[in-house]
Amino acid sequence: MIRGAHISPDDSPQPKLLLVGGGHAHVAVLADWIRNGPPPPGGAARLRTLLLTPHPTLRYSGMVPGWLAGQHARDQGLVDLAALAARAGAVWVQGRCVALDPQARVVHTETGETITFDLASFDTGGVGRGHAVLGDDPRLIDIRPIDAFVARIAARPAPRRVVVAGGGAGGVELAFGLRNLASAEARPEVVLATGAAGLLPGFSQAVRKRVARAQARQGIMVIAEDARLADGAIMAGNRSLEPADLIVAALGSAAPDWVRESGLAVDDAGFALVDRHQRSCSHPHIFVAGDVAARADLALAHSGVHAVFAGPVLAANLRKLLAGEPPRRSYQPRWNSLYLMNTGDGSAIASYGRLAAQGAFVLRLKHWIDKRWIAQYAALAGTA
């Protein structure tokens, strides 16, 4: 493993593939390299693959609400990226991308190092919107990046009263998890400020009703107003939500500044525009997946579900391009996605289109799916 190394253009005459970020899509790429051998045919001797990530592990965000409620150990939802990279014939490089020059084919890290590439793929995830939307406050913690969120929650005293801003599935699950916080002697009071769009926009009425009933049963206060910080106080509309020991921002993903500044084609929000093959619309030697990408041909929510399914497509297209062939695979989302929301009290709520279900059996299904996802990569990495 190389930690903060300078990788010069003359290090090797071999083609260099740079994977920037350790998100769900790149985990699938590494898995493909392990199962089928590194591309092109002939293996790693003909290709240098580098994986650049800030941490040697990926934390699976879907298990964080369960950790809050004491259903998982803190590090039970980790994927060992460094071990996966080693098994895939790649080199893990510790660092965070802060700038990209697509013309010069150079990535700059936060420590001032540079890494060159022939072909690059980016799966860095988005950045939090908490400070930009709500304002600044020492009590404010954004859920992005998820590793920093977990570290800050673990390091602080258990809160007595929490405000969660954001009415999507992430905000809902975190509100449930914090209401059932295992490290707290007394259950924290929780207020969920959903925003003007209300609770779970885009979900069926049946799901919203079940979630609302579960929130009422657990004593979670729900306010359909936009949260904001004003004069040191957390507000929802004209209503003060004080006192609050902790403010959690679950407001969706924003694009990192370096994406727009790089000169890559971007959408109005600054996410990298890609075609149906996950290829940059402006620079064909660059691929982008996960939350940092926006499809030019269809509207996709920034969701881990889509990144998971885009991963094998990305792996196949990288393999084709490295073999000198055009990419062919495309991720087409299903008509609906399955969401399993942990309510923190031994139950969960399932959403699939208009269908909804609730109970301990749904939580058992969620735990089985989550742990199976982690276990498959542990087996591939040789860490099981």
Automatic annotation (TrEMBL):
<keyword id="KW-0560">Oxidoreductase</keyword>
<dbReference type="GO" id="GO:0019646">
    <property type="term" value="P:aerobic electron transport chain"/>
</dbReference>
<keyword id="KW-0274">FAD</keyword>
<protein>
    <submittedName>
        <fullName>Pyridine nucleotide-disulfide oxidoreductase family protein</fullName>
    </submittedName>
</protein>
<dbReference type="Pfam" id="PF07992">
    <property type="entry name" value="Pyr_redox_2"/>
</dbReference>
<keyword id="KW-0285">Flavoprotein</keyword>
<dbReference type="InterPro" id="IPR023753">
    <property type="entry name" value="FAD/NAD-binding_dom"/>
</dbReference>
<dbReference type="InterPro" id="IPR036188">
    <property type="entry name" value="FAD/NAD-bd_sf"/>
</dbReference>
<dbReference type="GO" id="GO:0003955">
    <property type="term" value="F:NAD(P)H dehydrogenase (quinone) activity"/>
</dbReference>
<feature type="domain" description="FAD/NAD(P)-binding">
    <location>
        <begin position="17"/>
        <end position="301"/>
    </location>
</feature>
<dbReference type="InterPro" id="IPR051169">
    <property type="entry name" value="NADH-Q_oxidoreductase"/>
</dbReference>
